[in-house]
Write a structure and sequence with these properties.
Number of helices: 6
Keywords: Glycoprotein, Secreted, Selenocysteine, Signal
Helix content: 25-40%
GO molecular function: selenium binding
Largest sheet: 2 strands, parallel
Strand order of the largest sheet: 1-2
Subcellular location: Secreted
Strand content: 5-15%
Radius of gyration: 19 Å
Shape: globular
Protein name: Selenoprotein P
Number of strands: 4
Order of helices and strands: HEHHEHEEHH
GO cellular component, one term: extracellular region
Length: 161
């Protein structure tokens, strides 16, 4: 199970990097239970050096409890360290687009205005991502038929939870 997860996370990391989304930190927090601790080395070997695998100590407070989450959750922070998304099951399955889209939104949106962490090339990358998403949406938009055709303009809404 963890091999599939780690492979998909690595694939997502590479995909986003190829789209220009760089300087993203990925961290896997291994569960505290004994079984997970015994499999730590396999988990660490299943991802590249670009993904950190953090092993919790049995004696420390559980990271997931501290973060009000569960072991299969994705917590997505912006570049200023603010939590933007907390995705739990089934939204954390990497076979769906929720994690990828949430990372893109956290990467591209300027929630607090002018940001000292933004780099000039990020604007171009984010415009390209938005343009591609709009083109995909236009492809699935229903075409008007008949005399009383009305053009309905679909607007994507991004809701933050």
């Amino acid at each position: 199970c963890f091999f599939t997860f780690s492979t998909r996370l690595e694939d997502l990391r590479v995909k986003l990097e190829n789209e220009g989304l760089v300087n993203i930190s990925y961290v896997i927090v291994n569960h505290q239970e004994t079984y997970s601790q015994r499999k730590f080395h396999l988990l660490k070997e299943s991802v590249s050096d670009y993904i950190t695998v953090y092993q919790q100590d049995e004696q420390q407070a559980d990271v997931w409890t501290t973060l009000n989450g569960n072991k299969d959750d994705f917590l997505i922070y912006d570049r200023c360290g603010r939590l933007v998304y907390h995705l739990g099951l089934p939204y954390s399955f990497l076979s769906f687009q929720y994690v990828e889209e949430s990372i893109k939104i956290a990467y591209c949106e300027n929630k607090c205005g002018n940001c000292s962490y933004m780099e000039p090339e990020i604007d171009g990358i984010c415009e390209n991502i938005t343009k591609k998403a709009d083109e995909k949406l236009a492809e699935i938009e229903p075409k008007p038929t008949g005399q009383h055709s009305h053009h309905h303009n679909l607007h994507r809404r991004r809701q933050h939870h």
